[in-house]
Specification:
Cofactor: Mg(2+)
Distance between the termini: 26 Å
Number of domains: 3
Protein name: Ribosome-binding ATPase YchF
Structural class: alpha/beta
Shape: flat
InterPro entries: ATPase_YchF/OLA1, Beta-grasp_dom_sf, G_OBG, GTP-bd, P-loop_NTPase, TGS, TGS-like, TGS-like_dom_sf
Number of helices: 14
Bound molecules: guanosine-5'-diphosphate
CATH superfamily of the largest domain: P-loop containing nucleotide triphosphate hydrolases
GO molecular function: ATP binding; ATP hydrolysis activity; GTP binding; metal ion binding; ribosomal large subunit binding
Strand order of the largest sheet: 2-3-5-1-6-7-8
Keywords: ATP-binding, Magnesium, Metal-binding, Nucleotide-binding
Length: about 375
């Protein structure tokens, strides 16, 4: 399943954020969250298009796309060497597709900071170093094996892998994350199953106090500056205040408090959407009277691959796809109206699916 892991030092607000996400369910009955394990929740991706389609089609069921969020607590200095429950948590991270790194950007003398003061840049480095050390250990072990294979000869993959691992080792030893290494397509292929922690896509969440949710603060500025070359998104969320708001009874009350803060929607919504982008996923819809549903596929997927998300038979037996653009459906109001207006296209195997497409697959069984 699609999974994002929340990491960060203790007391930066990870579980508060996790709880906000779990309370996002109260925002809209259509976007449920359920906790499947104490630290794992499944959250639906907010999408206005799905709501619009539901209004038009009036289906029996509605099924949004979902994402699993894992609260990875217990990451501390020394985790890579097994400090605390370090190794267990690091293996939790290995299974996630992307990382949400929470940084404490709020001052509060009542909340102890493990290193004595609020300094998100130092905190980020502490976590980065643990992840890098773990990767270095992994890379070194793999490198020995790959180098042996490469020496025996007749194994071009091993030669290439040895080269890639060598480059990873070099940057990791310099205290950088493996994601800075640029790989060719052929490199990517041999490196695909390394699952390094520091090559995972990452986004940063600055957890701020109430007064800073709109414009940020000096800590947020420092974070933005520090990560500017990482090509990573930085999101500002007031987890504490949003957790309070999430406790409110009615939607109207929540909206009122959010507006008082200067927000249109909860910061966690921004976060969910950003995490979704981070995974390089897009959404297509199926819109039948039984069910209106959102499906996620890797950006750039062709029609058969996208069909395979529903069922492998759809991919194997793919014949063609009937495609309506979301805008057309929304404007014209129904599949029949789109057909009539010539807004339903028949596409073949080579069609690259576009975000928002409403798909109907034809296939052989
Ligand atoms: P974790 O250890 O990273 O999971 O941190 P927690 O979510 O347990 O938060 C640690 C403490 O900080 C709790 O007492 C929270 O209520 C508090 N906290 C979390 N976010 C904020 C915030 O934005 N502002 C303030 N003042 N306190 C917060």
């Amino acid at each position: 399943a699609l999974q994002c892991g929340i990491v960060g030092l203790p007391n930066v607000g990870k579980s508060t954020l996790f709880n906000c996400l779990s309370n996002a369910k109260a925002q809209s009955a259509n976007f449920p969250f359920c906790t499947i394990e104490p630290n794992v929740g499944v959250i639906s991706i907010p999408d206005d298009r799905l709501i619009r389609l539901t209004e038009l089609v009036k289906p029996q069921r509605i099924q949004p796309s979902v994402m699993e969020i894992v609260d990875i607590a217990g990451l501390v200095k020394g985790a890579s060497k097994g400090e605390g429950l370090g190794n267990k948590f690091l293996s939790n991270i290995r299974e996630t597709s992307a990382i949400i790194h929470v940084l404490r950007c709020f001052e509060d003398d009542n909340i102890v900071h493990v290193d004595g003061s609020v300094n998100p840049i130092r905190d980020k480095e502490t976590i980065d170093i643990e992840l890098q050390l773990k990767d270095l250990e992994n890379v070194e072990a793999r490198l020995q094996k790959a180098a042996k294979l490469a020496k025996i000869g007749k194994n071009p993959d091993a030669v290439r892998l040895t080269d890639v691992l060598g480059r990873y080792k070099e940057v990791l030893e310099q205290g950088k994350s493996a994601r800075v290494v640029e790989l060719s397509e052929a490199d990517e292929k041999v490196a695909a199953d390394l699952h390094l922690l520091t090559t995972k896509p990452i986004l940063y969440v600055c957890n701020v106090d109430e007064a800073s949710v709109v414009n940020g603060n000096v800590h947020v500025d420092a974070v933005r500056e520090a990560v500017k070359n990482e090509n990573a998104e930085v999101i500002v969320v007031g987890a504490g205040i949003e957790a309070d708001i999430a406790e409110l009874e009615t939607y109207e009350e929540k909206q009122m408090f959010l507006e008082d803060l200067g927000l249109k929607e909860p910061g966690v919504n921004k976060l969910i959407k950003a995490a979704f982008r981070l995974l390089e996923l897009e959404t297509y819809f199926t819109a039948g009277v039984k069910e209106v549903r959102s499906w996620t596929y890797p950006k750039g997927a062709k029609a058969p691959q996208a069909a395979g998300v529903i069922h492998t038979d759809f991919e194997k037996g793919f014949i063609r796809a009937e495609v309506i653009k979301y805008e057309d459906f929304s404007n014209l109001g129904s599949e029949a109206a789109c057909k009539e207006a010539g807004k339903m296209n028949v596409e073949g195997k080579e069609y690259v699916v576009q975000d928002g497409d409403i798909m109907h697959f034809r296939f052989n069984v």
